[in-house]
Amino acid sequence: MMNIFRLAGDLFHLISIFILIHKMSTSKSCAGISFKSQALYLLVYVTRYLDLFWTFALYNSTMKIIFIGSSAYVLHLMTGPFKPTHDPNIDTFKVRYLIGGAAILAVLFPYKWTPAEILWTFSIWLESVAILPQLFMVQRTGAAETITTHYIFALGAYRALYIPNWIYRYLTSTFWDPLSVIAGIIQTVLYSDFFYIYYTKVLQGRKFELPV
Predict the structure, then answer these.
(1) Average pLDDT, whole number, for the chain?
(2) What is the pLDDT at residue 146?
(3) Main localization of the protein (predicted)?
């Protein structure tokens, strides 16, 4: 069901993609961007949007193709022309724990015991923590370029807006998806410190720096 919260969330998602690709293309660099987070997001979209092979709806299918295609393109830039600008020494978050945890939860608590539903559940849990390698990089360096912080903020706003989307759907049609709500809350909580510093520094025209 379409509503203003979902539309706004999708808009922020598209904005985050545009900001990221624009930053990398104009600077000819992927410095400050976590390859591991980007790889996790591609894994999220590939496992979630398997229904592209058997269902089609203009809006939803277009968005799914954009998300998969843009994530693959970003990884191409990071492993190809801009690879020398990525520093793996600071992109060191152990993502196997995130993937393993999401896989365990997906097997234990799927809506249905089918491969498609298990993979969909896996993608929901994984997306809730996929930003951690990126936030970890920012924490390690103690600062970030302004345009990178805009990207992270837009990505966080996208997921935060999906929470009122689920509430609105429940109030208007009694449809309730507790898994998506819980995962969205987890992700928003992970962003909370970043949102605060972004509001108090970046939006005030100051450089994004973590408190010492």
Answers:
(1) 92
(2) 86
(3) endoplasmic reticulum
Q: Contact at 8 Å (CB) between 32 and 87?
A: no
C-alpha R_g of the chain = 17
Predicted local distance difference test score (pLDDT) of residue 1: 65
Output helix, strand, coil percentages for the chain, rounded to the nearest 5: 75, 0, 25
Identify the DSSP state of 82.
T
Angle at 144 between CA 143 and CA 149, to 5 degrees: 130
Q: What is the pLDDT of residues 104-153, one digit of tens each?
A: 999 999 888 999 999 999 999 999 999 999 999 998 888 788 889 999 99
How far apart, in whole angstroms, are the C-alpha atoms of residue 155 and residue 144?
A: 15
Contacts (Cβ under 8 Å, ≥6 apart) of 168: 3, 5
| Tokens representing residue 110 in the block | 């799927």
Task: Give dist(CA 98, CA 1) in Å, integer.
Answer: 30
Nearest CA to 160 out of 2, 13, 1 is that of: 13
Tokens of 149: 């912080």
Per DSSP, the three-state class of 144 is: strand
| pTM for this model (two decimals) | 0.93
Residue 180 pLDDT more than 70? yes
Give the integer Cα–Cα distance in Å for 160 and 127: 12
